[in-house]
Amino acid sequence: MTNPLLRLWAPVLALFLLTACETTPRKATGGALQESHLYTIDTWSAEGKISLQMGNERETASFNWSQEHDNYSVHLFGPFGQGATWLRKTPSGVTLENAKTGVHRAKTAEALMKEVLGWQVPVSNLQFWLRGLPAKRPKPSYLQRDEAGLITELRQEGWEVAYSKHQFFDGWWLPGKIVAQHGELRLTIALKNWRLPPSPIQAP
After folding, report:
1. I need a surface site. Which of 34, 65, 147, 182 has the fewest CB within 10 A?
2. How far apart are CA 163 and CA 176, in angstroms?
3. Which residues pair with 44 in a beta bridge?
4. The predicted structure's pLDDT at residue 110
């Protein structure tokens, strides 16, 4: 005869085992395993909105970011009173172009933005931060993860970066919202769409 106590606890045990089966793949996908695979993806694109706040001033724009190996093309729509802007990195250097300021060139995006726009964001790091990854160097001074292994906060090169609203795209858990702050400069990014190769990791 089946033990009455066992019959009572059997549904609870089954629910626990089912929950464990559902959450284990996400932990693997969202943690170090996912990050090791994401670092190898060098061709991808993302779309969303970006907001820049400095003191009491705040401006917002939409953006398309396309990455191919070490090169990128960032299209900003109506950014910060400058009109449509293109920021491009190629093997020959970085260019910033819009209707008001024309075409400008420099060795780094940060120096170029500071010279032309009067402000700068860490574009070299953003190509990693957008995917929820720390930049490869220097190592972050602080790193925090949630229960699923996804990074929720990091500090790197004087920037404090917070992640939230993670979304599932083609097998990847990717940030839906990023807030990066350095002194009075606050950068808020809302990501709406991704295009990148499907994850080789088993989906949740």
Report:
1. 147
2. 8
3. 67
4. 87
Asked if the model's pLDDT at residue 24 lies above 50, the reply is: no
Write down all domains in the chain, each with its CATH number in brackets.
Answer: 28-195 (2.50.20.10)
Summarize pLDDT for 42-77 with one digit per residue, the tens: 999 999 999 999 888 888 999 999 999 999 999 988
Question: Among all chains, which residue has been given the structure tokens 């960032």?
Answer: 74
Q: Phi and psi at residue 77, in whole multiples of 5°?
A: -100, 115
